[in-house]
């Protein structure tokens, strides 16, 4: 079965951020991901990871408002500074994956111009990681949850990766976003698996834990296994009630 990591933005939210590491470890998780470490010194987070014998899998580049800025030409320098900051944190936390956030296309920005800015930003960022152990990941996000987000489909993300180089960039395949935006989750997974560096999950439509919605998780997990995916699957869902009470899905589907 896949290896699951706890997303500390979404799980154990009844606790302060730094206390969520221990809670995740007590619940059986051996790795974590989250959107942003930047509110805390990396030394504090590193201490929590070591105390819990926990692996840091992934976090995002600084959001610059919420969803990134890679596609916005007027924010190029801010974007570059954000990448440098993310790579400093990744080095301190021994984190191998950084989600390069695409950003929301401003209403007054032509999409072709945004596309050119995004391609240039990703190519620049890829150069920055070429001498590190970090791999960047690109995540398509559905327009229902984040209207205007630049990267809309799995195929758009894959095309950028193929153009720039899969050795430094991979696809962050979020099952929830794929199902909401496009459907055909396992078929897309099969086609794109050579590019997939990280996966995330939540059920549809409520974005709650597996088993609360329409996705056939037994089948999805079998396909992930059969396709030879060896990375982590981030539990990026909103617990329907309380985090620990909702973890029964792990035994139900992946036990």
Number of strands: 8
Query: Radius of gyration, Cα only, in angstroms?
Result: 17 Å
Query: Uncertain runs with pLDDT below 50, 5 residues or more?
Result: none
**Which percent range fits the helix content?**
25-40%
| Count of DSSP H/I helices | 9
Distance between the termini: 8 Å
What form results from the Cα inertia axes?
Answer: globular
| Highest-level CATH class | Alpha Beta
Any idea what the CATH architecture is? Alpha-Beta Barrel
Number of structural units classed as domains:
1
Order of helices and strands: EHEHEHEHEHEHHEHEH
> What's the multimeric state?
single chain
Brief summary of the model shown:
The protein is 38% helix and 15% strand. The protein is built from 9 helices and 8 strands.
Question: Care to describe what's here?
Answer:
- The chain is of the alpha/beta class and 255 residues long.
- It has a single domain (3-254), classed as TIM Barrel (Alpha-Beta Barrel), CATH 3.20.20.
- It is built from nine helices and eight strands.
- It has helices at residues 20-26, 42-51, 76-93, 111-129, 154-164, 175-181, 185-192, 217-226, 248-254; strands spanning 3-7, 31-33, 55-60, 97-99, 135-138, 169-174, 196-201, 232-235.
- An eight-stranded parallel beta barrel has the order 1-2-3-4-5-6-7-8, surrounded by five helices.
- The relative contact order is 0.14.
Q: What would the keywords be for this entry?
A:
255 residues, 8-stranded parallel barrel, 9 helices, 8 strands
How is this fold's topology laid out?
Layout: E1 3-7, H1 20-26, E2 31-33, H2 42-51, E3 55-60, H3 76-93, E4 97-99, H4 111-129, E5 135-138, H5 154-164, E6 169-174, H6 175-181, H7 185-192, E7 196-201, H8 217-226, E8 232-235, H9 248-254
Parallel strand pairs: 1-2, 1-8, 2-3, 3-4, 4-5, 5-6, 6-7, 7-8
């Amino acid at each position: 079965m896949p290896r699951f990591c706890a997303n500390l933005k979404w799980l154990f939210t009844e606790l302060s951020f730094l206390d969520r590491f221990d809670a995740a470890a007590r619940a059986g998780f051996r790795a974590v991901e989250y959107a942003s470490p930047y509110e805390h010194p990396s030394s504090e987070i590193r201490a929590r990871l070591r105390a819990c014998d926990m692996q840091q899998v992934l976090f995002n580049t600084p959001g610059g408002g919420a969803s990134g800025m890679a596609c916005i030409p007027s924010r190029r320098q801010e974007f570059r500074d954000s990448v440098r900051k993310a790579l400093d944190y990744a080095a301190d936390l021994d984190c191998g994956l950084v989600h390069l956030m695409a950003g929301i296309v401003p209403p007054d920005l032509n999409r072709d111009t945004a596309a050119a800015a995004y391609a240039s930003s990703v190519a620049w960022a890829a150069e920055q990681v070429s001498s590190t152990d970090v791999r960047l990941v690109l995540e398509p996000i559905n327009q229902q949850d984040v209207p205007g987000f630049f990267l809309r489909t799995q195929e758009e993300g894959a095309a950028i990766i193929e153009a720039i180089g899969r050795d430094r960039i991979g696809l962050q395949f979020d099952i929830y976003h794929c199902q909401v935006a496009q459907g055909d989750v396992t078929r897309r997974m099969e086609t794109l698996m050579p590019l997939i560096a990280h996966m995330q999950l939540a059920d549809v439509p409520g974005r709650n834990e597996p088993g609360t919605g329409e996705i056939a998780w037994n089948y999805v997990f079998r396909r992930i296994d059969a396709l030879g995916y060896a990375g982590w699957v981030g539990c990026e869902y909103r617990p329907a009630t309380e985090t620990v009470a909702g973890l029964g899905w792990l035994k139900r589907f992946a036990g």
